[in-house]
Amino acid sequence: MKTKQLNRQILPLKDFIKRVIKYFLFSSLLIVLSLAIGTLGYHYYGEISRIDGFYNASLILTGMGPVNEMHTTAAKLFASFYALFSGIVFLSTVAVIFAPIAHRLLHILHIPDEE
Description:
- The protein is mainly α.
- 78% of the residues lie in helices and 0% in strands.
- It contains four helices and no strands.
- It has helices at residues 2-9, 13-45, 50-61, 73-109.
- Helix 2 (13-45) crosses helix 3 and helix 2 (13-45) packs antiparallel against helix 4 (73-109).
């Protein structure tokens, strides 16, 4: 009887998969917007092509590091703030993607109090 009671507290698999997909899509949107900001910023401030800006933004966002050297003060400031922003975005998206999985795991591992 306790097993049935515990199973009712856990979200059904179909709904859980929908939740994971929703969180993944939100994270993907956040990454795409961050890449767009980085691409345009590197293109405008760093005076490099859009593809090189995208390349720089992608590598910064994943923590690999910059490719092109920034020569102007504005470009260096943008690159610095974008690197800080990217670190926060990367950690946030990982947290958002794994949140429903961790939540479900905590529900599964929950041991109800004995009465």
